[in-house]
Design a protein that fits this description.
This protein is mainly α. About 80% of the residues lie in helices and about 0% in strands.
């Protein structure tokens, strides 16, 4: 028992030291920080996968304190992203959760961390990152418009350009919540693709995602989509209102999920037919311009057991 506690403390001290060194390089060393930032969450994830939540949370607190000592306020945003992320990934492994649970948990943790830092930057420093990003985008479009004017664009062309820019800015501002959520979960997915093989090399038993072709969303997604569809038919949402923003973001998010469900069915069907993998790659690329049709396929796949029909048809064919 004593040896186990000693080993736990030793491993905790080692991982805190590794995290602090990686953080210092990420903050102070240009170019090299691109590589070290990728590894920041690994020491925390490895330790949390090995030990339960109490020592893992203790390591998280120690790592945050050390990050403030080493890098001050400059290093805290990085630490507040990668420490909770590493803990969520590691504890999911330690308690034997599925990879889907790990993905959702890590995504929610990263989303909360991002939102807290966003609000803290506004309250403490008066800096609104999103507003500044939109302002930079507007300035970039304005410079492009000036360049078009100097190149001899007609008044009609400039009017069309300004209208297109205005529509684009309104769309970006409206869809910011969906873009933020999608970006966070995409980042988590990419990080899991990198972290889990490394943790496996370090002797940690990591879970596996089921094949993409077996993805099946809950049927409740169809009910949510039906509610949004009925709301769009029965209500007249005014652009710029909160109700309009909620409706648009919910609609886009649900369509993205149904699109993924449709692509998943394509992969399932290709596997059942025994076609080569390059066919799945081509079909996936072709699904992008056919997004509406693919979403309908996703709706049909969720609402009806067409996968069961495909399986039974192949079983009957095999006989």
């Amino acid at each position: 028992m004593q040896n186990q506690q000693t080993r736990q403390l030793t491993n905790g001290a080692m991982m805190a030291a590794v995290f602090t060194v990686l953080l210092a390089i990420s903050v102070y060393v240009p170019l090299l920080n691109v590589i070290t930032t990728l590894f920041l969450g690994l020491p925390i994830a490895w330790y949390s996968a090995k030990y339960p939540w109490r020592p893992s949370l203790l390591l998280a607190v120690v790592s945050l304190v050390l990050s403030f000592i080493v890098g001050g306020l400059l290093s805290l945003p990085l630490a507040l992203v990668y420490v909770p992320l590493g803990v969520s990934i590691g504890l999911s492994i330690h308690y034997g959760k599925s990879k889907l649970f790990m993905f959702l948990c890590a995504g929610i943790v990263l989303l909360i961390s991002t939102m807290l830092q966003y609000m803290a930057s506004i309250v403490l420093f008066g800096i609104n990152v999103l507003e500044e990003s939109i302002t930079m985008m507007q300035q970039s479009y304005a410079r492009a418009g000036d360049l078009l004017g100097r190149l001899g664009a007609t008044a009609d062309q400039m009017e069309q350009y300004n209208k297109a820019v205005s529509d684009m800015e309104f769309l970006v501002e409206t869809l910011l919540p969906t873009l933020l959520v999608a970006s966070v979960f995409l980042l988590v997915w990419l990080m899991l693709l990198f972290y889990l093989p490394v943790l496996k090399r370090l002797g940690t038993a990591v879970p596996k995602f089921p094949p993409f072709r077996d993805m099946k969303l809950p049927k409740s997604v169809l009910w949510y989509y039906l509610i949004v569809l009925l709301a769009s038919m029965l209500s007249d949402f005014q652009p710029g209102t909160m109700a309009y923003m909620i409706f648009i973001n919910a609609s886009v998010l649900l369509q993205m999920l149904l699109f993924l469900q449709g692509v998943s069915f394509y992969h399932f069907y290709i596997k059942q037919e025994g076609w080569p993998k390059w066919v799945a790659v081509i079909v996936t690329f072709l699904a992008l311009p056919l997004q509406s049709f693919t979403s309908i396929v996703g709706i049909v796949d969720l609402g009806f057991d067409i996968r069961g029909w495909v399986k039974r048809a192949h079983e009957f064919k095999g006989k």
